[in-house]
Amino acid sequence: NEHCIISVNMSFSVKKIFQTSTALGNTIWERSNKKCLRYNASILNQMLARQIHLCCNLAARVTFKLADIGEGIREVMVKEWYVNVGDKVSQFDNICEVQSDKASVTITSRYDGTISKLYYAVDDVALVGKPLVDIQTDQADEMQPQTLSTQDEEVQENEPKKSEKDELAKYLITNEVLQSTEEQTSICIPSVRRLAKEHKINLSLIKGTGKHGRILKEDILEYITKKPETKPVVPLEDRVEPIKGFKKVMVKTMTESLKIPSLMYGDEIKVTKLSELRKSLKDLSELENIKLSFLPFFIKAVSNALQRYPIVNASVDENCENITYHKNHNIGIAMDTKVGLGVPVIKGVESLSIIEIAKELNRLIQSGRDGSFSPNDMVGGTFSVSNIGAIGGSYMQPIILPPQVAIIALGASQALPRFDENKNVISEEIVNISAVADHRIIDGATMGRFTQILKKQIENPYLLFLNL
């Protein structure tokens, strides 16, 4: 007829974790209105040890659930963690702070132990009654069975008895509501945050009217009503136009050009002396009513170099089976016209003076502005020059215009530091040149030598007049 009831609370000492009512066949007596129980100590110790061992194994790791914090709240936002995985905690230590629609609540530990798992991250929504953390408890060390004293314990009848429910309630208070006024100014409740998110509102733009500046639902709604309406974006209608005129010619020419295996040779040319010569011819250019830029000088230098390397002034047939060497130096000038890219041709440059080249160039430039090129202006080119410097560019890789086999591009003039023959730093006017050739019939050495002849004439402009 042995009956034993043991109630264990893992947070109490052994003396507080059990109440026993038993009949062991030993003596039971009453003494002057004081009731005492004497037990067989050895048997009770064995029973208690078995119960403690079982409880320690089952409760070594405790899942700490989020308790009901009242007022019908079923979810809260995790505002801040005070612990990390691996931290030691004791009873009533702060674990985290959560934010409900009405208040901030600090959650405290019910156990002594080590944090083994956090179920939520900061700003996650935690549900009441669901796991919050796992704690590896230290109860195995605390709950060592103790030998019960065989001495009598007297219980005063007139001493008020505490029920088990009252005793447990004392130690199960875990939630402490903290109305932190400082933090309320910088955070709003989850329902307000959700409302702001739904309307894509930046909370930093709203001044809260709640206590200590907290943002209320009314603040969000007022902001929405005052926010200017965003006008719907009306898609613009696309415009479609046929490719025609110069653009259609360019489509055909550039498509064919990119089929040509080409090489590029680059260098820089000093134009300081040429600049001085051009200034000295200013009166003459005004007399002739022409604009004398660097370009007429370069065109003449190209013609002189073509005389030394006629392969550069050649053309090939469609299948590149025959080379035609041209006697005339018909130099095409790539221009940006009102109708697109145009390459009008200055014909017979080999027999023209620099002033005559400048006059013809000025005429073609004006025709490009007016869109009034004649058919004869656009045909017969044997070599081309692209003056990208006219719009400020320094470098460009030009594209050959078939059936021609070479082209050069000129950059804008720049004042750059360079060394003179005595290794002194001086300012030089520099123009970059890019020369491209059809690699099927012109090798890199030939194109390099051609460019060097051109460069030598520009850097020593008096050589230009030897071929007049």
UniProtKB/TrEMBL annotation:
A single MF term (Gene Ontology): dihydrolipoamide branched chain acyltransferase activity
Pfam families: 2-oxoacid_dh, Biotin_lipoyl, E3_binding
Residue ranges of domain Peripheral subunit-binding (PSBD) in the record: 187-224
Location of the protein in the cell: Mitochondrion matrix
Enzyme Commission code(s) on record: 2.3.1.-
Top-level taxon of origin: Eukaryota
Chief location category: mitochondrion
PROSITE patterns, sorted: BIOTINYL_LIPOYL (PS50968), LIPOYL (PS00189), PSBD (PS51826)
GO cellular component, one term: mitochondrial matrix
InterPro entries: 2-oxoA_DH_lipoyl-BS, 2-oxoacid_DH_actylTfrase, 2-oxoacid_DH_E2_comp, Biotin_lipoyl, CAT-like_dom_sf, E3-bd_dom_sf, PSBD, Single_hybrid_motif
Transmembrane segments: none
Keywords: Acyltransferase, Lipoyl, Mitochondrion, Transferase, Transit peptide
Gene3D superfamilies per the UniProt record, alphabetical: 2.40.50.100, Chloramphenicol acetyltransferase-like domain, E3-binding domain
Domain Lipoyl-binding: 61-136
Region (Disordered): 143-164
Catalysed reactions listed for this entry: N(6)-[(R)-dihydrolipoyl]-L-lysyl-[protein] + 2-methylpropanoyl-CoA = N(6)-[(R)-S(8)-2-methylpropanoyldihydrolipoyl]-L-lysyl-[protein] + CoA
Co-factor requirement: (R)-lipoate
Similarity comment: family membership: Belongs to the 2-oxoacid dehydrogenase family.
PANTHER family, alphabetized: DIHYDROLIPOAMIDE ACETYLTRANSFERASE COMPONENT OF PYRUVATE DEHYDROGENASE COMPLEX, LIPOAMIDE ACYLTRANSFERASE COMPONENT OF BRANCHED-CHAIN ALPHA-KETO ACID DEHYDROGENASE COMPLEX, MITOCHONDRIAL
Stated name of the protein: Dihydrolipoamide acetyltransferase component of pyruvate dehydrogenase complex
Annotated organism of origin: Anoplophora glabripennis (Asian longhorn beetle)
Gene designation: ODB2
